[in-house]
Amino acid sequence: xxxxxxxxxxxxxxxxxxxxxxxxxxxxxxxxxxxxxxxxxxxxxxxxxxxxxxxxxxxxxxxxxxxxxxxxxxxxxxxxxxxxxxxxxxxxxxxxxxxxxxxxxxxxxxxxxxxxxxxxxxxxxxxxxxxxxxxxxxxxxxxxxxxxxxxxxxxxxxxxxxxxxxxxxxxxxxxxxxxxxxxxxxxxxxxxxxxxxxxxxxxxxxxxxxxxxxxxxxxxxxxxxxxxxxxxxxxxxxxxxxxxxxxxxxxxxxxxxxxxxxxxxxxxxxxxxxxxxxxxxxxxxxxxxxxxxxxxxxxxxxxxxxxxxxxxxxxxxxxxxxxxxxxxxxxxxxxxxxxxxxxxxxxxxxxxxxxxxxxxxxxxxxxxxxxxxxxxxxxxxxxxxxxxxxxxxxxxxxxxxxxxxxxxxxxxxxxxx
Length: 417
Description:
- The structure is a single chain.
- Helix 1 links the parallel strand 4 and strand 5.
- Helix 4 packs across helix 5.
- Among the domains are: 143 residues, CATH 3.40.50.200; 136 residues, 3-Layer(bba) Sandwich (Glucose Oxidase, domain 1), CATH 3.50.30.30.
- The chain is built from nine helices and 21 strands.
- 18% of the residues lie in helices and 28% in strands.
């Protein structure tokens, strides 16, 4: 994980609850479900490829070679783990459609995805992929019928972490949790250069290059609503309002690890929620001078810190603002395996009330087994807006353990968390 500085909002990429479906009916009657953007020429009628020969070259499963028109004309071509495919060349050869196996997005063709029949079977769909590859490899005259289903909303489970999304821990400072959040970054409708090979003003794209603009735009909207908020306050609102459960009410899963439950090292504080971020109740604010003090506790020279800060810096011993004390919306306690039992770490934080006057918050802790977590004080009483109150979190390890995760929420009567 790079981009690990605490003043940077580091964003992972995850899926959305929208899918673009296609159903493949094999010649033996077996059905395999895939994804496709193809809509056909009539937007009011579902597109279909009637039963056609299914071509699969066992010697060139990734479709890297030029297609022989004699072999592929009038067929549906199956490609396994393709690197890049020229649909224009395939069209010239008379290919009816493509089926891509073992990919997660539509960035494998040089043709607009909605203009040429293309179906993908995602990496996690091992059963479907195995079924169609085995069928195409073993049958003498394999065939396939493709029914394109269009857009489906409410796809489950979603969101899920994309396999290409960078994971923690933070290379620069392991005590600063990264990424900070995750956001939509898979199969996103985005602006595109008309001068590109696709010759379109838009395309479906995937990457953290999609999720980062999402959060950047969200942050800009928060600044428009709360012009007095600092960048750190905006970042805090984005993080503390995020969620970690998908639309099946289970922990967000990780497609990069066979769909197991993801952790804060994958999604950070969670998936962003723009509506909740507008009214977070409390924020963890940080000033530029605090970041400088944080840098002073790292292995940088004064000259290097001044280059980052853009101002003269005076570092001195005794600074109480290392990673543990930086007013960050997350806590990372690192214990030495050789440390005695009941070792503890203390974190100091300051919360700023950006909600109503006379607001009362109670600390709610979800601590993993083997850790004892104490919040002091456990109740914060704000009498006015913009008031700041301090608290400490003491984390005590009762035994040696691997990486574990917990959660601290400050909850008021209005549902702020």
